[in-house]
Amino acid sequence: MVLMSGDINRILITGALGQIGSELTVDLQKTYGIDNVVATDIKEPKDDLKGAYEKLDVLDQDRMRQLIKEYDIDTVYHLAAILSATGEKRPDLAWNININGFCNLLTVAKERNVSKIFHPSSIAAFGPETPKINTPQETVLKPRTIYGVTKVVGELLGNYYFEKWGVDVRGARLPGVISNVAPPGGGTTDYAVEIFYDAIKHQKYTCFLKPDTKLPMIYMPDCLKAFKQLMEAPIENLKHHTDYNLGAISFDPTELVAEIKTHIPEFTITYEPDFRQKIADSWPKSIDDSAARSEWGWSRDYDLKAMVADMLKVLGERYQRGEL
Fold first, then answer.
1. Which residues, in sequence order, are bridge partners of residue 249?
2. Average pLDDT over the chain, rounded to whole?
3. Residue 304 neighbours by CB distance under 10 Å
4. Catalytic residue flag (residue 147)
5. Contact predicate 228/218, CB 8 Å
């Protein structure tokens, strides 16, 4: 029998086959027990996925209600979303999935007395008017992308349901997430994942951002750690709920390249900025996450050097096995 942490007992994950969801599913299974985690997505799962899996379109409220009732779910990690770069190509789809899908969950959670919801926000919630250096917790939210707009609306919706009906919605403004397991999923910070694959396979990379584009990032192990820390924090400690700034590492492509070259000296990069440059230019360079640190004990484990070394080690081993 697996001992539960806090009051988290039965977990459902939406978007479980995405970049974060695929790793979060395994991580939560290890923490809370494989039988206490239900993964859902609109796609067919891979053969190696362990534990319960159900197909779920977050726009189907009846199906969502059925699964939450059937599995007696008390905690939901809501990761199903259209990301920044993809959202700019299909703003109608981004709004539908990111907002209407979340509203469906909030409605069902209120009906079924779901104890906790994790709904990630993003640095995309900020805009050109937001201070770029050490972006404060309380600041201007005037995003210029539909993804950012949906994240601001999501923060407000989550807070509304908490204040009005007591639905315990929690969330953090994620920086770019760097993973050595799942491929990137259509975000503006994807270069910081793609670059490792190309460095290992081709010793060269063409970057879609300018060399001096500094952005906040986080390594996946730290990201998963933050999710669980926030969800397990006593509610009386939380002065915020859905909008915690989350900081870890900030770097630009030149700094990342320099660190990669300490491992792969022959690696080269060229720059061909595209439409994602404008998106990146509207985002912060570094984040003040003092509220997360003081209210639920957040701290990173990986700096740039440690992240690069681990990424190259893991991906290098996968390449040698013919998995990349």
1. 217
2. 94
3. 17
4. yes
5. no
Domain count, the chain: 2
Q: How far apart are CA 123 and CA 174, in angstroms?
A: 6
In a domain, 97, yes or no: yes
The answer to whether residues 154 and 276 belong to one domain is no
* Structural element, H or E, at residue 174: strand 172-174
Q: What is Dmax (Cα atoms) for the chain?
A: 58
Between CA 260 and CA 89 the distance in angstroms is 32
pTM: 0.91
pLDDT tens-digit readout, 50-80: 999 999 999 999 999 999 999 999 999 999 9
- Crossing angle of helices 220-232 and 19-32, in 10° steps, is 50
The verdict on 120 and 256 lying in the same domain is no
Residue 185, SS3 per DSSP: coil
Q: Residue 160: which domain range? A: 11-175+219-245
Structure tokens at 122: 């993003």
Candidates 32, 53, 77, 147; catalytic one: 147
Tokens matching residue 310: 């681990």
Strands (E), 58-165: 75-78, 116-118, 121-122
- Rounded CA-CA distance 131/133 in Å is 6
Same domain, 64 and 134: yes
Digit-coded pLDDT (tens) for 20-44: 999 999 999 999 999 999 999 999 9
> Are 46 and 30 in contact, with CB atoms under 8 Å apart?
no
In whole angstroms, what is the distance from residue 86 CA to residue 188 CA? 9
Residues 110, 194, single domain; the answer is no
User: How far from 206 is each of 194, 200, 268, 273, CA to CA, in Å?
Assistant: 10, 14, 9, 9
Residue 6 lies in a domain: no
* Cα–Cα distance, 174 to 183 (Å, whole number): 17
- Residue 284: burial class (beta carbons within 10 Å; 0-12, 13-18, 19+): buried
**CA 120 remoteness from chain centre:** 6
Nearest in space to 146 (alpha carbons), one of 223, 106, 86, 224: 86
Strands 172-174 and 244-245: parallel
